[in-house]
Amino acid sequence: MVAAGTAAFPAVDRVILDMEDDGAGHYLYIGAALEMDGPAPALDAVRAHVRERLALLPPFYGELDVAGQVRELTVPPGPDSRRRAYDALPNLTVPGTQPWGLWLVHGHGDDGYLLFHRVHHGVHDGVGLALLLRVLFALTPQAAARAAHTERPAPAAPSSARPAREAHAAQEARAAPPPERAPAQRQVQGQAPGQARARAGAQLRHAADSARLFLPGPRRPLPPAERAGRRIVSAVTVPAAQLRGAAAEWGCSVLGVHLSALSHACRSTDVTGWTRERRSRGIALPVSLTDTRSGPYRGNRYSLVRLPVPWDEPDLGRRAQLLAREVRRYQDPAVRSALARALGRLGTGATRRFSERLYARCGVQTTVLPLAGEVGFAGRPARHFTGLNCLPAHFPYQPVLSLHGGRAVCAFTVDAATPGARDLAAYWREALDELAPPPRPERPATPFPAAPSGPSAAPPPAPRSEPPAAPSSGPSAAPPSGPSAVASEGASSAPSSGPSAGAPAPEGAPPD
C-alpha cells in the first residue's frame, strides 16, 4: 500500500511541476468554493479552523504557515458582484511560498460569504482534493477525523510547488526500499485463466491506443487568437436528478450525459472548425488509479485517456450513449491495471512526450468532482459547492462537473479571450434540457434557500442545429500527464427509446 504522503507516480507530478517553467502560461491550480449563509466569520477563526483540521493529516505541505496561506478577499459591491467574485478566484496570486491557499471572500452577494480552497495540481489530483475537502470542511470534528483516515504515516511534502522537483529527485536517490505500488498496480495472486486473458487483452488494447498517438494529428487551432492570460468562470447549477434522469432515460451514465452536453457546448462556440475537422479531436479524461476509500493523499494517481467524440452524430442522446460506452471500458479492473502498470514504467521524459501527443489530439479536458457527506463551516452546511478546474495552455477552457447535496454545477475555467466564453455553461445546460427536461422543483432539504443558477447565470442562448461533421478517428488511450482530476462514471443500462423525465438512476462506484 502506498503511504498517503508518498507519490505513487512521481513522473506525473514532476511533469506537472515542470510545466510552471515552460513559458506557455499554464494555470495549474485546482480548487473549490463553498457558498455560506450568514455573517462572515473573523479571519482568525478561519485560520484556527484550518490549523485544527490540517493537524489531522500527514504533513502534505511541510511546515505549515496558516497565517500566510489563509487570507481575505473583498469584492466591491455591485449588481454583478457574484460573477466578479467567481471570476477573481482563478486569478488570485498564490499567497506565501506554499502550494495551497484558502481565501475568505466578502462581497460576493448580500447574504453570505465564500470559502475558497486552492492547491497546485502537482500536489493533489481531483480525487485527493475531494478527500481533502471532506476533512477541511466536515461539519463536525468527529466527521473530519473519520474522513482523515490515512493509509500510514507519511513523510513531509515539499513546501512549495517548484522545489518539489528537487524533492522528487532526492527521494529517488535515497537508498531505501521502493514504495509499494498503488492499489490498481498490484498483481492479483493466483489469477484464474480468464482473469489473466482479460489482463493481457487490456494491455494489448492499451498498447494499440497508445500507438495511435503517433498517427498524424489535427491541424486546426483551438483558440482563434492569442490567450488573454486572464481567466473567467462560466457556470450553471442544475438538479442532480436531471442528470440522473437523462442517464436513466438514455440508458447510459451521468458522465455520458455530461460529455454529450459538453460536446454541444464545444460545437456551439467553435469558431475555428476544430469540431468538424476530418482528424477530429477527442475529449481528455482522467481515470483514477487509487482506492477512493482511503484518506487524502499527496500526488497524482490517475491515467489520462482520450475519448473519441462522435461529432457526426447529431442526436445528443445517441451521442451520450456512444460516449458512455467509451468510458465504460475504463471501469474494467484489467484495463485500469494495465494503465497503472504502463504508467509506472514511464520516466519523466516519456510521460511528457505522451502527454503532449495526447493533448494535441484533444479539444478539451474535463473531470467530475463528486463530494460525499455534508460540508460547511462552524457546523453550518454550505448552500452551494463549486469545483474549479485548472487551465493548461493547451486548451481555451476546461470544465469540471461538481456533484454534491442534490445539485450539480458545471463550471468552466475559461481564458477571457475565448469567443463565447460566457456562453459555454448556457450551451451545456441547453443540451441537458434537450436530453431531459428539468424536474419539478422540490422543497429544499435544508432550511436554507436554493442557490442561484451558478456563478454565471445567463439565460441559455437560442438553440443551434449541429450539422454533421467528419467521423472521429477512434479511441487513443495514452500514458497520462499534465493537470487533471477525477473522472466519475455512473451506472449504465440498456438503451431506451428517447429522452423524457424519469426516475433517477443510482450512481455506481466511480472508476476513478
Automatic annotation (TrEMBL):
GO biological process, one term: glycerolipid biosynthetic process
GO molecular function per UniProt: diacylglycerol O-acyltransferase activity
Pfam families found in the cross-reference section: WS_DGAT_cat (PF03007)
Listed InterPro entries: CAT-like_dom_sf (IPR023213), O-acyltransferase_WSD1_N (IPR004255)
Biased composition (Low complexity): 148-162, 182-217, 483-506
Residue intervals of the O-acyltransferase WSD1-like N-terminal domain: 99-254
Region named Disordered: 148-228, 435-512
Ranges annotated as biased composition (Pro residues): 436-470
Entry protein name: O-acyltransferase WSD1-like N-terminal domain-containing protein
